[in-house]
Design a protein that fits this description.
Blueprint: H1 9-44, H2 68-100, H3 112-123, H4 130-142, H5 147-159, H6 162-171, H7 174-197, H8 229-268, H9 281-293, H10 300-310, H11 315-324, H12 330-339, H13 342-378, E1 402-404, E2 412-418, E3 430-434, E4 461-464, E5 473-478, E6 482-488, E7 494-496, E8 509-515, E9 524-529, E10 534-537, E11 550-552, E12 560-567, E13 576-582, E14 598-600, E15 612-614, E16 621-628, E17 637-643, E18 649-653, E19 659-661, E20 672-673, E21 676-682, E22 691-698, E23 710-712, H14 723-738, H15 749-754, H16 758-776, H17 790-799, H18 808-813, E24 817-818, E25 823-827, E26 832-834, H19 836-839, E27 845-853, E28 862-867, E29 875-877, E30 880-884, E31 890-892, E32 905-911, E33 920-925, E34 931-935, E35 941-948, E36 959-964, E37 969-973, E38 982-983, E39 988-991, E40 997-1004, E41 1010-1018, E42 1021-1027
Parallel strand pairs: 4-38, 20-24, 35-42
Antiparallel strand pairs: 1-41, 2-42, 3-34, 4-5, 5-6, 6-7, 8-9, 9-10, 10-11, 12-13, 13-14, 14-15, 16-17, 17-18, 18-19, 21-22, 22-25, 22-27, 23-29, 25-26, 27-28, 28-30, 30-31, 32-33, 33-34, 35-39, 36-37, 36-40, 40-41
Length: 1032
Amino acid sequence: MSDTAAPTAPHKLRLIISVLIVAVLAYLFWTGSRYPALDEKAMMSGAIQLEDSLSFEAKFPITADMTLPQRIFWSTLNWINTNKKGMTFGVLFAAAFLTLIPYLRRRSFKGGFANSFLGMVIGAPLGVCVNCAAPIAKGMYSAGLRAETTLSAMIASPTLNIVVLTMAFSILPFFMAVTKIALSLLVILVIVPLICRVLPQTELPQEDIICAMTPGGGLMAGRRIADSPVGAVLNVAKEYLQNLWYIIKLTVPLMLLAGFLGTVAAVLLPQELITGLSFSILALIVIAVVGLFLPVPIAFDVVVTGALLSAGLSHGYVMGLLFTLGTFSIYSFFIVWQAIGIRAAALLAATVGLLGVFAGLGAQIYYDRQSERALDILLQGDAAPVTAPLFMAAEAAGTDPWQVISADAGRVTVSAAPLAPLSAPADTEFSRFEAQTIGIDKPIEFSFRDMWPPFWEGRAVSSGDLDRDGDLDLAIASTEIGVYLYLNDGSGSFTRQDIDLGPLAGMAVFHSVLVDIDNDGWLDLFLGTYLQGNYVWRNVNGQFGAEPPRRVMGRDSDILALALSFADADRDGDLDLALGNWAAGWYRRIPGEESRNRVIWNDAGALSGRDFTDLPGLPGETLSILWTDLDSDGAADLVVGNDFDIPDYFYRGDGTGGLEMVDHASGLIPHTTTTTMAIKTADLFNDASPDIYMAQIAGRSSGVSKKLKMQPLDQYCDGIVDPQARATCRQNMQIKKWYKSGNNFDPTYANKCQQLEGRYKDECRAMLVKDLAIQKEDPKICGLIPAGQDIPRAYCTAHFLPVRQPQAAEIALTHPQILRSNVLLSWAGDAYADKAETVGLDVGGWSWDTKIADFDNDGWQDVYIVNGTWVPNEVSPSNLFFHNQGDGTFSEASGPFGLEDYLMTASATQFDIDNDGDLDVLTHPVNGPLSVFRNNSQTPGVVIGLVDLAGNRDGIGAVVQLGDATGRTQMREIQLGGGFMSFDAPRAHFGLGNERRATRLSVRWADGSQTVIEGAFDAGNFYTVTRSGSDG
């Protein structure tokens, strides 16, 4: 390295102070702004929406009615706002370099390669855009560092930052990310040293160095203060301020000019101008030049090219733009010209531009070959080569409706089948009728014994194609006979399947989930019982009974897994299970270790229970649990919703089975609901970002929310058509008038028990003894419950189990809770924010299961909440339907949509009963017959089914995105769990509104890999995307 004179003691002190300035600036910027912001972008990845042409966020909104000068003016201000932190850091850091470098004894190596490598080492961790790195490079060169070092640092900072590279691999095809890295290294380590060989000079002479060490020379001309410790601090401060002013004068005007010119170019050349363009070299050259010109913020290149790729821009254009955009800019050109010379600026710009063109051409050739291979596979050898002219843009011709353009094209096939004709139009979007009219004849199962949790909380419903005949069937849990199975005939009529339940017939089954446990392509049954554990019942070629149910190992103290969710959380190809345990509820609000939640890892399709992880945190009365990819990183995360005093928990998954608790100190979660009943995640605003909706029991049903629709309890049974169901309903409502379960024990209840008959009388007696024991806090009274009344006895025993008192350190980890409103957590930049009130989803009441789907096929997902409870109340609330207005708000519309229902409802399943492409709903009231809401939509939809032969068969955990010609992209995650005792068929439903065709489909499978398909996806069709286990 080149040497300076040996430093004296005062110089060493000033060196230490200068190093501290650099270190403090770097620490404050990296920890307070840069890396948190980059981590945020990495977390959001492809979900980031660009609000302005050169900015991530538009502080000043750009509206369609703006004139061109107005748009340029406000977009320039948005550019300044987006870049202000990075640019400020660049200027401050450049001044720090100017102050530090003169105190270094050595500032460079002799060889150009070594100096370029030094620049890469300095630049890569900086994490600033090329515009922000330019003034730093200016400061480095002015302080005496060689041109190789300064130019390489300027290129390395925006291109080789680890977080930006992580985003590139997340958003873009693998080969593009690798190409970007390879070309960046080529420029830094090879091209820059070669360019510097033809420059008149590669470092400033000693007399031209701004902070020359010669006394009284350079910018620091003037008298120094005495070199005491205080004097050293003041000397360095004076030097830093003078250097700062020097950098500001030389760089900030150019910075503003570059921002203005870049904005003009971006406004005049919007992305819509190129997204429909077929590939040609001339257009590629233009795009590369534009990318070379624009001064964009860091990571903008990755985000915007990912968005353009999703919008259908040719791969060659995307690759060319990916390399040129952000690697160089008009601002860096100005700075290099000013600092080193026009030759260096021109050669570096030309090199980046040419490499961008060559990279784009290579990417397009590679893509075309992959496309031909995909077409050949899809058309079984009948595909014709797809070519495009090189020197003029033209539409490419093709006959195949789909092209798999991702790297897995050889493993993916698409097939289509027409959906059934739409249901006949009606006065409302939905028509309600009792399920027994279409063959779902499960009776009301509710008696005196059920007037206590968990029995008053309903039974699980699950939909899926259990016989694999193409239509969707039902499994409904029963605490009387075990389980009801109903087979769909394809037109929406059902027949109960006769099965020999064996020992299950005598168990209180709460859960009956249709799920492919052993990954053989047939939906098995996972059964959860009260007190008697959990079971897997294997489906053998569409039939149950060939093999007996097999118990899943658990704790001896287990009472009930009231919440279940399935996903391939360890990415080994089969479905794992999250168990949300429940113990007693109601008075005993804080449970013990018997209620600790657990993840059972599927051991080669057995789900034996031997391989498990107990979740950290306080054990709670868990009512909802959901595997979902919260941060869009391709790995399943876990959200747990607890009742009463124990807060909800969030766990971030790593894709290998590791789960890390997101604690309150992270600042990510502002608050959650208190009595969380249902957790759902969905893209409510078509921004490719999953929102978290948490529904809760928000107080009594009277006077809770103005949005709630109430009906007097004396009208509760009046609308029931089936005579037997109506009679059972009325009998239970008569008891409800006087038996205030869970409120106060009233001695007069004993006389009322004597007036009852049959099982009601026996159960009444047992329940009152249980109530008395709880009121007196005397567990010995539980022993007085009559023999044969096992359920009331279990209630009583569970109430007196030891309570685990939370410790202060445990409580400190938890998130705050709120009452009397539901919560909608939407990502707000660096943390989640509750938008429920803003968008109109804060409604309280007795929210139970929640459905999120595009029920009217208008292209926006709506929210349906089933309401009601058996606890003491004066009125019965209706289910509520919130129609997505498409403008970021929701409007309650249960009446106009025909979705009002005042029966107390806990669970529901959404599925296409009649195969017509719209979602119907089956609800399971607590004290009422099952109800069906048939969808009468006259807007056809697109239905996507997945067959994953390389992972879990139904694609649980996959994220499906569908884009149309308007630029709108919708997202669905295939989930199994998360509501309240409710499980939906694993199909993705999309509405297109006024459009009739989508043009792009992407699937991020449960293992994190990506499939992208272009072509015609017409409304009114069911598309099956099949991924084979290996190439060929």
